[in-house]
Write a structure and sequence with these properties.
Number of helices of chain B: 5
Helix content of chain B: over 70%
Number of domains of chain A: 2
CATH topology of chain B: Four Helix Bundle (Hemerythrin (Met), subunit A)
Strand content of chain A: under 5%
Oligomer: heterotrimer
Largest sheet of chain B: none
Chains: A mainly alpha (341), B mainly alpha (158), C mainly alpha (206)
Largest interface: A-C, 49 and 29 residues
Order of helices and strands of chain B: HHHHH
Distance between the termini of chain B: 18 Å
CATH class of chain B: Mainly Alpha
Number of helices of chain A: 16
Number of strands of chain A: 0
Strand content of chain B: under 5%
């Protein structure tokens, strides 16, 4: 379903020799399915901690306060990975994009908080490249000069639109769309077919989920129009056209798209659980990322490693939060994603 | 004055220079990748070394070809004993081209294959021999180039 | 309690009237108490059912947030909570149960509860929000029932005290006063008769 990217299209970039070799060795330390099964079966937190000690997380596990606060540990690990990849990337424009996402989140949060005069507090994340205080100042003074030229261009374009936004949800949707357009434009600027393909794929899958969520909330067409992201393989007209036709129409039209497998997977139905679909779409994206193992030199394996780690952290978060709150094993399992390793 | 020696020596120089240049590049790819692997996993040095040296052979082939040219010209009996005519000199230059070109380009591509092999060894150390075989397949054409160079050299009547 | 009353026929009539009134009041209050009790028990039964429902729904909503927090970066979940574009209006009026004023809450929800974008959020969050919004109106109803029960309990207590005061204090003491007046009057009657008889005798001897 993802023939639009061919690994041989990626140019041979000899600058990435060290990085790729390093990544290939690091990939062997990703948590694999057997490890995950052991983690899931661990009876007590103590056992869980013991199992985690055998993984890469042994370096950060002390931050979790005996696993009572897994988030601190997981975010420290993410940060470590971003920094590591940044250090081995001779031209980090693309790998840094993954951190700009958090900066854009912070910008959005500060903007929203300022609208209603509240403190954004815990809704900010320090995973971005810019300090939180700096972002707050930028929003307060509407001065985007401190950002990279690309990012500040995005904000300059976005700010006037935000002023006309009627409510906070519109603000969010404008930000979301701007973020994905920005990411896509950067991938295009760097001529990276892999990342371009990944983003198109991701945007389509997000649009699919948005379509279904709005359909289930009985939202109107106008809301859908606002919420859809641009730059997918399927354009917004495609999604809007079938909105009146309901789920049956969606499934039948999807069989003529690259996403026919998803239409056949029977997770999309009137009363279907979106949890299952979210898991499947994440798995599909990961399958796409996996073709990068055919690229032996270039930025692609580095990007793939970031995505693999992000996925791993997500899986671990689901598992740890579930275990800490005594969710039934089934409820945890149905949300666990595939792993890269 | 006889100009025959000039193209002959240029031929020998090309054989060594180009294939050496190719080898150097070819080695640098897997070597960089291997550095990355070793940073995490120093125990793989042995198998990685094998992959790194493979693209280095072209440089030797080039040298061997140059050596044959020198023998042909009798360099080892105290200076150029045999002075070729201009036509013979160009024949020798032509004879050197298979290894010069073949060695140069095959070394670079072999380097790429080896670099990919380094990635494989990092993930699956047991599959090491397979990646060596793939890399060696590229080597074949450097050997053929060398063989052609030697056969042609031998066929040139002085 | 001993009532200080003057033992006159007038007083007797007055007290008799009071006793009758007290007895009628007692009966009425007793009826009221019974009716209040019946309503009270009914309410308690409803309340327990509702409470269970609310607790279950709240648990579901909180679990929804928990799961959303597991699949999203926690900061992203927090961000959706910063602002809301839905409003609620609570209308308070009063009704009367057996002369007791009890509150009636009317809740009106306006606007869209989903005040966040879709790209960075999970469908789990939609469910959590939906649960929370669904549980709001039963929760207000629960508050209404709780307050009503509290007020009714107060009223029952008050009525019971009044009934008891009538039954065990006022009525017995009135009855006692009546009987003592009746006795005094009887005695006076008898001594009058004795005096008259004696006077008659003295007159006859002369």
């Amino acid at each position: 379903m993802m023939q639009h990217y061919d690994p041989s299209m990626s140019p041979w970039d000899a600058r990435y020799g060290f990085g790729v070799g390093n990544i290939r060795a690091l990939e062997t330390r990703l948590i694999d399915e057997t490890m995950l099964a052991r983690l899931l079966e661990a009876g007590s937190l103590k056992d869980l901690e013991g199992e985690l000690e055998e993984t890469e997380y042994s370096q950060v596990i002390s931050l979790s306060n005996d696993l009572q606060d897994p988030e601190a540990m997981l975010q420290a690990e993410l940060k470590r990975v971003y920094d590591l990849v940044h250090s081995m990337d001779p031209d980090p424009a693309l790998t840094d994009l993954f951190r700009y996402r958090y900066d854009i989140h912070n910008l959005k949060t500060c903007y929203k908080a300022q609208l209603i005069g509240e403190d954004p507090g815990p809704a900010l994340t320090d995973l971005g490249l810019y300090p939180v205080e700096e972002i707050k100042r930028m929003i307060a003074e509407e001065d985007m000069g401190g950002l990279t030229p690309e990012l500040s261009a995005m904000m300059e374009e976005l700010l006037p639109k935000l002023k006309d936004a009627p409510d906070s949800r519109s603000v969010e949707m404008l930000f979301d769309n701007a973020q994905y357009s920005f990411l896509y434009a950067q991938a295009q600027r760097k001529n990276n077919c892999f990342l371009e393909g990944y983003l198109q794929f991701q945007i389509d899958l997000i649009n699919l989920k948005t379509w279904l969520r709005i359909y289930k909330m009985k939202g109107n067409r106008k809301l859908l129009e606002q919420a859809l992201l641009d730059h997918g393989l399927l354009d917004r007209e495609w999604w809007l056209d079938i909105y009146g036709g309901g789920i049956g129409e969606l499934i039948s039209r999807m069989s003529y798209t690259p996403y026919s497998d998803l239409a056949d997977a029977e997770v999309i139905s009137e009363d279907g659980n979106l949890v299952e679909l979210e898991r499947l779409t994440d798995d599909y994206l990961l399958d796409y990322v996996k073709i990068v193992s055919y690229v032996s030199m270039g930025v692609e394996p580095l990007i793939a490693y970031i995505l693999a780690k992000e996925n791993e952290v997500k899986v671990l978060r689901i598992l740890l939060v579930g275990k800490l709150n005594h969710l039934p094993k089934e409820e945890i399992r149905m949300r666990l994603r595939k792993l890269y390793a | 004055m006889n100009w025959g020696l000039v193209p002959a020596i240029i031929g020998a120089a090309l054989a060594v220079g180009l294939s050496g240049f190719g080898s150097a590049m070819g080695i640098s790819y897997p070597a960089q990748a291997a550095n990355g692997v070793l940073a995490e996993d120093p125990e793989k040095f042995g198998s990685l070394l094998m992959l790194i040296v493979l693209p280095g052979t072209q440089g030797f082939y080039g040298f061997v070809a140059a050596f044959f040219v020198m023998v042909k010209l009798g360099f080892f009996g105290g200076g150029a004993q045999v002075v070729p005519t201009l036509s013979q000199g160009f024949q020798i230059l032509g004879a050197c081209l298979p290894i010069a070109g073949g060695g140069w380009i095959s070394a670079i591509f072999q380097g790429r294959v080896s670099a990919a092999g380094v990635g494989l060894v990092a993930k699956r150390p047991k599959e090491f021999m397979k990646s060596v075989i793939f890399s060696a397949l590229v080597e074949t054409y450097a050997i053929l180039g060398l063989l052609a160079t030697i056969l042609i050299l031998m066929g040139i009547k002085m | 309690m001993q009532m200080q009353v003057s033992a006159t026929r007038m007083e007797l009539l007055r007290l008799k009237k009071r006793l009758k009134l007290a007895q009628r009041g007692h009966k009425l209050l007793k009826d009221k108490q019974e009716e209040l009790m019946r309503r009270f028990l009914e309410l308690i039964k409803d309340y327990e059912k509702l409470r269970k429902r609310v607790e279950e729904a709240l648990g579901g909503a909180l679990r929804g947030f928990l799961v959303a927090r597991a699949v999203m970066l926690p900061a992203y979940v927090e961000e959706t909570l910063i602002s809301s574009q839905s409003g609620t209006e609570l209308d308070v009026s009063t009704a009367h149960i057996m002369n007791t004023a009890v509150p009636i809450f009317k809740l009106e929800q306006k606007g869209d509860i989903y005040s966040y974008g879709f790209a960075g959020t999970s469908a789990d969050l939609d469910q959590a929000y939906e649960h929370l919004s669904d549980v709001l109106s039963p929760m207000v109803e629960l508050a209404e029932k709780e307050k009503t029960i509290e007020l009714l309990a107060d009223e029952i207590e008050k009525t019971r005290r009044r009934v008891n005061a009538l039954e065990y204090v006022l009525i017995p003491s009135l009855e006692e006063a009546l009987s003592s007046i009746a006795m005094r009057l009887g005695e006076m009657e008898r001594s009058n008769i004795a005096r008259l008889m004696r006077i008659k005798e003295i007159i006859r001897r002369h």
